[in-house]
Every structure is written in structure tokens, then in C-alpha cells.
Amino acid sequence: MARACGRVSAPRPRATRWCACRCGATCWRRRRRRASDAIGCRRRGRENGQRRIHDMSLIRQIWCLVLGAVLASALGGVAVSAWSLRDLLQTQAQLKNADNASALALALSQQKGDAELMSLLISAQFDAGAYESVRWRDAKGAQVFERHLETPQAPRAPGWFAALLPLDVAPGVAKVSDGWKSIGEVELRGQTGYVHEALWRSTLSTASWLLLVGVLTGVAAAAVLSRVRRPLDTAVQQAEGVSQGRFETVLEPRVPEMRKLTSAMNTMVLRTRQMFEAQAEQLRTLHHQLLCDELTGLSHRRQFVAELSSALERDDGPLRAGLVLLRLKDLQGLNQRLGHGATDQALMAIAQALRVYPEQVRGCLAGRLNGSDFALWLPAPGVVGDTAHALAEALRAGLQNLGPGVGVAMGAVELMRDQPMGAWFAAADAALARAELGEGVVLELREAPPSEEVAQGERAWRALISDALQQQRSRLLEFPLIGRDRQVLHLECPLQLKLNPVGDFEPAARWLPLALRHRLSAEADLQALALALQASQQDHRARCVNVAPASLNDGSFIARARELVQAAPAAVRRLIGLELAEPAAVQHFEALQELGRQLRPLGVQLGLEHAGAGLAQIDRLFQAGLDYVKLDSAVVSGVSADVSRAAFVRSLVVMLRSLALKVYAEGVTDALDAQALWDCELDGITGPWASAQGIKP
């Protein structure tokens, strides 16, 4: 048994923490815990209040300060005005009471001390005036006559107002005499209801005027804050643009403080832009040193083969293309007869004639395969014959100054682009071998067989593609892009069409060149976007679809794409990406910017695919509004066995990371290349190797 407070009771369980005396009081531990909890609650309340204040925007804080100052000024003005007016009216009421009392005493003094007449006069005065009470006392202080209102007049002002500003009006007192003899005094108190009424009306009028002044002040403050906010918002947007890789200068505002901030931001942007341009120039120099032939400046054999392999694997190339091989005959004999200088001039003449085509036509490839062999890739059907003849004429004119005995053999072929690379070089080598039998500049041309497009007619192909798009006989393939941890970052989703209702789905390489020719690429890209949105809404996986650069020429493409994206939930929008080939950043830069301005605020990511050395030629890459860049397989292929190529890839990554862009590699086929790319700090890899990995969504 436990004893406490003089009473005996059974002990309670310890978990209850109640005193054993059952007196209802909590034990000291519980009281201390409650006190500490209360202190903690108050502290957390203060911290939350301070956090809410700190989280408030600057403009909102200024607005609160302005409104608080205006409100405090208005309330203070009303209070001071009401208080001063109350004192004034109270003084006037006191003076009025004194004057009325003096006038009544003078009238009473003329009655010669007749009490009846004096009483009648006081009653008449009380009934005629707005008095609350009138008293007449004799010379000894005894009350002779008194009149007062039973129910004083209620003021029209609110009761709380009368209670807040009470009136203390002293009564008027005057002596009553009969000649030189004092016969008493009279005390008179006027009614004060009208004073509160006048004070209330005046307070309302003052408050109304101050409210009007406050509203005008608020409007003026809003105009001033709007002027202050514009340069502040511009500075914020400029800072956000820098963080997103967009380096834009803005006009300096007139506000001195904001002018200093904007000037500092512009200076930083200009310096960053200069650093990017210097880095791009270094990248161009590195590309020329590592991936190009030292003498001619053309791509060396490994780079040309990688670029040709990438061109053959793309979906957006033509159905047919051309390849021209050139060989300077008897290179060793020319060195002996003409010397190394003249031989180098001959090689430079060939390189100069070839360089014209890649510089003027996007997609053309030119390279030096070995000491005497050169190659030219023409990504267009039906042009290899004319191009080869024009090239032969240019070489005849350029080599004639070197003297006799300088000959060039040329083999030109045109094949379907789905042929393997070995078939291309075999056909061109066969034509080149026949051309070597002649003298001077000799061209051997192999005509391409008629294509299926020519056999069926362009109208028939256009009808097949249009019908497939209208009836939505389409689907998306899925190829993973994985990160370093083997997790899928997004799915690459090329579009396939079923041109024949009873046939199979055709890859984009089969129908996309025709769709580009017949201006149907925008419809195909929009259908791919709609399918990606639908699939991502179902499984919540990130997807990206390809957009042909030619689709940007369609004036309604961007608007229709925005409508499709806006119709999807916000969570689905963030899972979608759009990819354009590298030429889009050069040929359609403004349209690419507009696409980013329309879709990136909705959550859609924008990327550049098949990117390579041409990135260094895009002088406004930092303004393109991109989220990521995919390096072409021609750039990353063989990176594990080529130290110079790895250095070039690492330089590309450094330049793109400085623009806040993620960098991926495409077309990776080898595990050693994948590991070398991870060592180059890439963010993701796609290609046959990535598809073969055991990956997780």
C-alpha cells in the first residue's frame, strides 16, 4: 500500500502516471512534460510564422509593407482626428453650458428674489432649451429647484463609438443675486448626444477621405511596384536562362540598383558566351586534328566509314544514294617523277574539289581512305551521274597545270540504301578498277536499277502513306536508353506504318523518305506523338519520338503538337520527349526555338539526335532551348580503341555540360565502347548493346 496526502489507496499502473492518491492531480513528470510540450509548440509556431514570412516573395513583402503603412496611417489619422475633434467639441459644450448658465442667472437676478417667478422662468428655459438638467441652490447650498430629463436623448452614433470616446463636459455654474445680495447659484448641464453625433459624422467623413487617399496611394504603389518588378522579373528570367544554358543579354533598366544587377548579369552572360565560342573553336580544332587527314583536312578512313555506316542506318535518308571513289593513279611513281610537293598539290586539288559538296549540301560525306584513294557519299537519288561528271571536269581543269602523267580514276555507283556497306564498296571498287585502265581522268558509272517507287509511281506511294496515316495503321517500337545503373531513362520510339492493310508494318526507312518528299512527315510525327502520349499514360514510362526537321516547315505543326500535349495530364507531359536531327539546329533554328518555347513549359523535353562535330558549327546552340543531345554513332563508334576519339568525345561532353545539357550516345554496339563512354561521363547509352542488357524500368 502506498501512502500519499494522508490517504491510502492502491497504486495505479505506472503507464498512467497519475498520483497514487487519486486526487485528480497529475504527477510532476507529466506536468513538466506538458510544460515542455507547450514551450515546443510555441517555438514551432514562431518558427513556422518566421518561415512563412521568409518564404514570401519580395514583391509580396513590399505589398504587405505598403498596405500596413497605409492602413496604420489611415487608422492613426482617423484616431488623432477623432480625439482632437472630441476635445474641441467637449470644450465648446463646456463654454456653451457656462454661457447658458450666466444668461439664466442674469434673468433670475432680475426677478427680485421672487421664488415663484424664478421657478417659472427656470421651467420655461428648461422646456425651451436642449438641457439635460438645471439646478437652483440658495445661498446656503440647499437645493431649491431642480429639473432634469427622465430619458436623455440617445445619440445617433453607435454605442461602441460613444463608449470609446466618452465626453466629460462640466456643467455651467453662475451666481444669482438680488442687487448686491447673493441669493444662490444656478447649475446648468446641456445634452451631449448631438456632440457624439457630430463627432461620428466627422469621423466617418475623415475615414472616407483617408480611405480614398489610401486607395490612390495603393494604385500609385502598384504602378511603382510594377515598374520595379519588370526589371526584377527580367533579371530572374535571365538567371533562369543561364541555369538552363540560354545566354541572353537584356536592356538595362533605369532603376539604379536594378541597372547594376542587370549590367553584372549581362557581363556574366557575355563572358560565358565568349567562353563557349572559344570552347567551340577548340573543339573544331581538335576535330580537325584527331578525326581528319592532316594534309587534306578531309575525314580519314575510320571516320568516313563510321559516318557512312551511321548514314546507312538512319531512317530519314533517301531510298537510293550514290558513292564515288577516286584514286590518284601511280602515287609512288608521281612522287619519284614530280616530287612530294607536286604530288601533294595533286592530292590537295582532289580534296578541294570534293570539299565543295559537304560544304554546300547537308548530308554529303567526303574522306580520304588512304594515300591515294578518296570517297564521296551523295545522299540523294539520281544525282550521282551528274555529280561525277562535274567532278571529273573540275579535276581535269585543276590537274592540267601539274603536267602530263597525272591521272585520276573514278568509280561511281548508285544503289538502294538498304544494301550493306560491303556491297557499296564492292560495287564502287569494281567500277574504279575498270576506270584505272584508261588515261587521264576516267569515270566509270554504274547505273542503278529502277526502284520500286518509280515502278509503282509517286502518286501510288503517296496514297499508300496517306491512307495508312488516316486509318491510323501505325505503331511505336521501343528501344531503351539506359543510364550508368542500367535503369531505363526513356524509350526511343520510332514509328512504323502498315502501308498494305493485309501486310506487315514497315520501318521508317522504308516510307519516311517518300513521306518527306510528299510533305507527309508532319502528319506522321503528330501521330507518333499521340501514340507516345497514350502509351505513357497507360504505363507511366518516359518515351521520346523523332521529329523530322522538315515537319517544322509545316506552319500548323507546332500548334497542333501543343494541342496534343495540353490535352494530356501534366504527369504524362513530363514523360514525353521530342528529338530532331542535328541539321534542324542549323536549317530551322528559329522554328526549333519556337518549338521549345511552346512545349518545354508544358513539361516536354527537347533533344538533338545524330549530333557530332557539327555541334561546334552551331554558334547559337546555347539559345536553342534543348534538354539533351545524343551523339551520333559515327562519333562514339570505336571510342574504346581510339584515344583521340575518346578525347574528342570528352571535349564534346564538357562543352555540352557547360550548357546544362545531358549527353547521350546512340548506336553503341560494343561493351568496351560502352565502358569507355561511361568513363567519358556520358549520361546514357542507346543502341544494340543497350537493348541486349538485362534492364529494369
From TrEMBL:
Family matches, as CDD domains: EAL
GO molecular function, one term: cyclic-guanylate-specific phosphodiesterase activity
Keyword hit for Transmembrane helix: yes
PANTHER family attached to this UniProt entry: CYCLIC DI-GMP PHOSPHODIESTERASE PDEB, CYCLIC DI-GMP PHOSPHODIESTERASE PDEF
Span of domain HAMP: 226-277
Protein's name in the database: GGDEF domain-containing protein
Domain EAL: 458-697
GO cellular component: membrane
Alphabetized SMART domains for the sequence: EAL (SM00052), GGDEF (SM00267), HAMP (SM00304)
Listed transmembrane segments: 62-85
Gene3D superfamilies: 3.30.110.200, 3.30.70.270, EAL domain, LapD/MoxY periplasmic domain
Superkingdom of the organism of origin: Bacteria
Domain GGDEF stretches: 319-447
GO biological process, one term: signal transduction
Keyword Transmembrane helix: yes
A Pfam family annotated for this UniProt entry: GGDEF
UniProt keywords, alphabetically: Membrane, Transmembrane, Transmembrane helix
